[in-house]
Hints:
Order of helices and strands of chain B: HHHHH
Helix content of chain B: 55-70%
Number of helices of chain A: 7
Oligomer: heterodimer
Number of strands of chain A: 0
Structural class of chain A: mainly alpha
Structural class of chain B: mainly alpha
Amino acid sequence: xxxxxxxxxxxxxxxxxxxxxxxxxxxxxxxxxxxxxxxxxxxxxxxxxxxxxxxxxxxxxxxxxxxxxxxxxxxxxxxxxxxxxxxxxxxxxxxxxxxxxxxxxxxxxxxxxxxxxxxxxxxxx
Amino acid sequence: xxxxxxxxxxxxxxxxxxxxxxxxxxxxxxxxxxxxxxxxxxxxxxxxxxxxxxxxxxxxxxxxxxxxxxxxxxxxxxxxxxxxxxxxxxxxxxxxxxxxxxxxxxxxxxxxxxxxxxxxxxxxxxxxxxxxxxxxxxxxxxx
Lengths: 125, 143
């Protein structure tokens, strides 16, 4: 089944709304459905992983971020999400592996995320 | 011609004037704005959002007014998607034949189909809740 871009953005907005209001299970359902419809969209992938993390499903989130990393290796949000999941699962070496491309500068991040990255680096040190 | 109580009245006025100038024996003035402020006080039975029952919040389905407006504009797209999905779901063989689960490829396809179906049912549920919400709001406006 295909999905048109305007339909995708409308449903994604609904998922974001659920996420911002704290309905993480509903947000998961929306984002999972969107990934099933179009797995080339990295925003849906990030949002699904983040909603899993917020719902406390760190193992599932890590599995998802690891899979997504193969599809979108240049996405810094996926790397950050993976690192967060590893830290929550107390797997510091895996978290370091996720953060490595950002620390070495291979993948550049937006300035607003620098503080979040510093916080993550401090946790794995 | 004698004016009744004339000297007395004058004395009274002069005393009042003197009091105003010297500010002696002045009584505390009544705050004329007090009743107005009293009306502006929040009602005792006002229910704030944090203390709002969970059931009521879930009824509102987590919409802020701004995002609700945005969603209204995008409703048409969601409805179009659901229309297409429901017409496809009628002819979808994957959801009916569970024996296809044995094969890995079909297993993945089935997983995808289930994820889409779950999303579609949530979208249906959300749209119907929005419809109820709209009806409630309309009835409130009518007073």
